[in-house]
Structure formats: C-alpha cells, structure tokens
Input
Amino acid sequence: MAEHLKKVVIVTGGSRGIGAATSKLLASQGYRVGVNFRSRVSSAETVVAAIEAAGGKAFACEADVSIEGEVASLFDAVEKALGPVTHLVNNAGRLFPQSRLVDIDAARFNEVLTNNVTSCFLCSREFVRRVKTSGAIVNVSSVAARTGSPFEYTDYAASKGAMDTLTKGLSLELAEQGIRVNAVRPGFIYTDMHADGGEPGRVDRLASQIPLQRGGTPEEVARAIAWLLSDEASYVTGSFTNLAGGK
Ligand code: NAP
Output
C-alpha cells in the first residue's frame, strides 16, 4: 500500500477489554495499530500476537498516557514502528473501588481525573500537533457521564462528563481542518474493569435493570468506535453514541 494511504491508529489502553476488541477489529480493517498499555505487558503482547496471527500489523507500546512526556514518546515510538499516526482512540481509563462521594479523598479524585481526562487531552493535543489535516479521534466516555454513578463512582462519572465536554470543544475547534472528533458512551460491558471497581459481577447484577436485559460485549462497542473512526462516518463530528442497552 502507498505510504500516504496507510492508516495508523493509536488505541490507548488497547491491551484489555474494549481497547483490545477495538485494536483487533481495526487491524482486521487494515489499520496498523499501536496497542498502548500502562503496566500489563503480557496483555498487550497477547493482543499484538492475535493481530499478527490474523495477518495484521500491530505494535505494543508502554506509556502512561496521563504523563505528558510519555505521550510524546508513545507517538514517536508508534510512528517509528508503523508510520505517521492518522487516527486516535482515547480509550484508556481507570476505575477505583465503589465508594460514596463523601468517602473519596482528593488524591483519588485527582488520580481518576488525571488518568481519564488529562490523558485524553494530552493524546488529542499530540495527535492534532502532528496530523494537522484530516483524520479522526474517538473518545471512550461512559453512560456514567449522564447518570453520575451515585454511591459508586462519582469521581469516575465526573471524569467522563469532562471527557464529553472535551469532545464537544475539540470537535468544533478541528472541524474546519477536517479532523472529526466523536465519543462513544458504553454502559455495562463485560470487561475486567469491574473487578478493579470491587465488583467483578457488576454487569450481571444490573442486567435486569437494562432495557435490553443484558450486558454488552467489548466487540459491540468496538464496532461503533470503528464506524465513527471510518470514512463511513465522514459527516459525523461532535456526536455521542450511547452503547448502554437502552439505559
Ligand atoms: P479495562 O479492561 O480495565 O482496560 C483498561 C485499559 O486501559 C488497559 O489496557 C490499561 O492498561 C489501560 N490504562 C489505564 N490507565 C492507563 C494509562 N494511564 N495509560 C495507559 N493505559 C492505561 O477497561 P475497559 O472496561 O475495557 O474500559 C475501557 C474504556 O471504556 C475506559 O475508558 C472505561 O472508562 C470505558 N468504559 C467501560 C465500561 C465498562 O462497562 N467496561 C463502561 C463505560 C465506559 P494496563 O492494564 O496495562 O494498566
């Protein structure tokens, strides 16, 4: 393929859950994929091996995307391995154990914001500085931005609300340049993140309260991300797609 036609995507947090499903789907669609991870190298290597076994091209790259210097290094490393970055999925996110707001300390609150929002800001800024014209960004927000996650994760919900606002502002700043920015808002998806929140079985517990009566799969979220990233969505920017079974 001619160099200028290559699509190179960075999926932050591409090593697990929604990010892993997105990395694999995008690779199957011809993207070269920078599979970013923060700490679990074996998860990232497993995703890359699966992509390569299916004939795709991917590169596992460690970086804490909430740290400015590591974001620049991430983009440098992916460009060196795969070529100039053309697309970005801001998927990395963290969840801490369920707690009422009154019991959350400032250190945790700031940690959640840094991991979920500053990371999105830093990666988007790096992308825009390098890409300049055309391309697309998809931010992985959450239904929590709308519900507020009372008694469980108000810090996390606030971070996703901020991510939605960043999506809106950046989409308007970049529209004239032809860079589209959209967000997906997953709801109750079967991933290991819920164990980090202290309740591995959370999705099953809530299933009966979801209009579609079930949790979602990472692959269902990945398909929406891939569509928003693609030229099929060429007239879509500043949008929010809820993937929460009707919630
Ligand atoms: P997950 O299975 O816990 O995976 C999280 C991924 O993010 C991992 O690859 C992790 O890498 C990476 N990560 C976390 N902090 C990072 C950082 N600072 N720098 C780089 N990588 C970082 O989570 P998931 O459920 O797939 O969630 C993915 C996204 O969807 C998150 O933004 C989450 O908020 C959102 N979401 C999920 C649900 C759900 O029900 N699962 C619902 C709504 C929204 P390491 O493993 O190496 O740390």
Summary: The pocket of NAP is lined by residues 12-13, 15-19, 36-40, 43, 64-66, 91-94, 115, 119, 140, 142, 186-189, 191-193, 196 (CB under 6 Å). The chain is about 45% helix and 15% strand. The chain has one domain: 3-240. The first strand starts at residue 8 and ends at 11.
